[in-house]
Amino acid sequence: MIFSRISKIILLSILILTFALGVLPNLFSLAQMNPQEERQSLEKELKELVEKITQYEKDITKTAEEKKTLQNQIYSLRKRIEQLDLQIRQSNLIIKDLGFQIKDTEGSIEKTSLEIERSRQKLANILRLIYEEDQRSIIEILVSEPKLSNFFDNLIALESLSSKNQELLEDIKALKSDLGGQKESLSEEKEDTEKVAKIKALQKQQSEEARKEQEQILKMTEAQYQKSLKEKQEAEKKAAEIRDRLFELVGVPEAKVPTFGEALEVAKYAAGLTGIRPAFLLAILQQESAIGKNVGQCYLVNPATGQGVRVSTGGKEPRTMHPTRDVPPFLIITKELGRDPYKTFVSCPMSIGWGGAMGPAQFIPSTWVLYKDRLSAILGRAGDPWNIRDSFLASALYLSDYGAKTKTQDGEWKAAMIYFSGSTTNSAFYWYADNVLKIAAGFEKDIETIEKSR
Fold it and tell me: Is the pTM of this model over 0.70?
């Protein structure tokens, strides 16, 4: 008994050890990598995931089109079935009506046959009387009739009656023949209608079977669609986790103002995700906050009016934040991030307009919320406008949306104008876009120098 327990323990230990030897190297492979190796590995995995997501999107689009086609076919089949059902009902009503007509015609034929029989009997009686009159001798006629003229009158009357009865008989026979023709015609029409009804019923059955088959295919297509959708969502989630980890590997703490080299690494990654030039992104952030050095010197004090306080002087700033446009989203953003809205730095107002811009990228709250979901999809968490990495990415998304991804002077100039003023037409702000392009040109040279030195 003891030996059996020891054997089981030894066997279990061997199994656990075998499992550990096979699995642990994989579990600790990433932990054993240096940051550069881990980054390269994650970037490779991210590329593969992006390719999978693209393929899932194609599959989902194709399946959605197939679903739409099948739904249209099912709809057409249902309408066809409804049409056939109405035609069958119509045919059945016609058959029923023809049956009544045939029954009425049969009744008329029966009555006509009786009339013919009665006329025949009358005609037979008249012919018998005429025959009897013809067989009487002259002596019988003279003895029985007071006047000879009476005999001839009777004979003429009988012959006239016989002629009329003969005509009536012919008319009745003609009527019977007509009724017989009508009955035959009605029977043929009824038979034809019954054949049509059977054909329609067969067509309905075939359409029903086709509809059921299409519905079954649609269920299978829907299952494939949901599977592809789920796999795409899982891949997107994994990609978001990898992107977040890659951002962490850049190694710029939230509270630390980055060096140019650190800022360049963040800018390169954010620009790579959005298709803009790193030098242009750095130029925007240099113009806005000296790449994170100047993130505002005002606090919000009164959310109802947007009034704040300038920390450096203690003076009141009545236009610190727009009370209806920006204060509500600002309170939501700070609450989600666990920040005190009345102890969080924002930009002070300039000579015109409102203040309230947040973090290194100087997003106003109402604009930041427009990019909230896209940031979350990439980062796998809520974006933070005061975080160096998050603010760089949000800025890159914004600039890409407004033309910077063209990487042309005109596209970048327009993107810079919109970033600062919301339009490209106000000549009073041309200086901003011009200055950004000059800074970007200088940064481009600095980046080339850094790259060559590596």
Answer: no
